[in-house]
Amino acid sequence: MPVDRAAWDLLCEEAGRFPDEIRELPVARPVDPATLRAELARAWDFERPLPLAEAAAGLARTLREGTVHVTHPRYFGLFNPSVREASVVADALVALYNPQLAAWSHAPAANELERLTLARLGRLLGFDPAATWANFTSGGAEANLSAVLAALARRFPDAGEEGLRSLAATPTLYVSPEGHHSLTKIARMSGLGTNALREVPVTGRLTLDPAALDDRLAADARAGFAPLAVVATAGTTSAGVVDPLAEIADVAERHGVWLHVDAAWGGAAAFSPRLAPALAGIERADSVTWDAHKWLSVPMGAGMFFCRHPDAVRRAFTAAPTYMPANVGAPDPYDTTVQWSRRATGLKVFLALAELGVAGYRDLVEHQAEMGDRLRELFAGAGWRIVNDTPLPLVCFTHPALDAGRPTVSAVAAEVQRRGRVWISEVALTGRGRALRACITSYRSNESDLEVLVEEVETVRERLAGSVSQPE
Known about the structure:
The protein is an alpha/beta fold. The protein has a domain at 91-352: Type I PLP-dependent aspartate aminotransferase-like (Major domain) (Aspartate Aminotransferase, domain 2). The protein has 15 helices and eleven strands. It has helices at 5-21, 33-43, 52-65, 85-97, 108-125, 140-155, 159-162, 182-189, 210-222, 245-255, 310-317, 347-381, 400-403, 409-419, 447-469; strands spanning 133-137, 171-175, 197-199, 226-233, 258-262, 287-291, 303-307, 385-386, 394-398, 425-429, 433-439. Strands 1-7-6-5-4-2-3 form a seven-stranded mixed β-sheet, with helices on both faces. The chain has a four-stranded antiparallel β-sheet with strand order 8-9-11-10. The longest helix has 35 residues, at 347-381.
């Protein structure tokens, strides 16, 4: 079947134009679900075959018009970045060659390129590649699940065969209220149950309190529970704070529990000499989650899981099917990870790292950190109050008028999103109420983008305040 040159020409043209044109697009447009579904049903009935180029052009238009553009330099929302061109090229090549990574022997080159990439990134965390198991995952939730299952396999080697009902004591997990809510799902999926989650209080800086953790671990052990793992966070989703990893590692070691660090976003700080000290202690973790599809600016999904206990990983995931190719002496991913069939997720990370190098990623990370510092200055200068404390580029802020409810935080966030010039969110911080949240997610964001953000938020606040103050 001949290649459809028109379709590939369109793809190349779109890839060349879109990054330059995105600044002229609204970050988001209001979308009504019922209207969108009706429009799509009319446009795509799947009864008449379409030329590929025509269908691809329609798909490109639909995505442009019906997407919150997370790659926009004025998207200041969740950890969704602008993507590196190299990573898009790699993703296209992976789609073309379609390597199947389940068995090493089916994709030796892709498996080894992933291993090489993970080894280099693991060294930034202080992990010895020769003594570490690492693999790419669909995202941070899968990596966090891998950590819990590996911790169970190490602490209770027979649980994989006998089940949790065979245990003499209930395993418990220790998390911060500022930690990621994937742990709630993981407690259900792993069979531990959500009652096994222990929420440890935070300090005034919104970091997990090591003293409170120490007390809770001791109390649970006395009560007959089996403390299993502590999950610390390096860059919380809500406020970007980094837990005191070294102090938490001391506590975990004293009690003999697994320490997992969820560094899904903040792990990229390891590239920066200025930011890396915030991660001090991460090298002592039993396992680490790090998402390349966040701060490393590659397409979703590209999570990473690092573990200092390869034997526990093998025990957690081993299988013995007769239909898989014979093992050739290298670990087979189906036998050592949550997934079975798997795309070559890591090649987009490999190619981006090959193009930029460690120094290029250092510059990318530090530019965004500088933009975060500058954004704090701009908001403070405009009369807003910063309510989080982190060296990472995530700014939570409020205003005396918002504190008084004139207007509310929710109203400002919703109106800013509706207008589409920038995108921010609201967040509820433990013990601090609601605030607006802006994260530097794009390596393309510059000071002019920050100025637009501050101007837009201030304009919306003033307009809403005027409407609130009008007599009924």
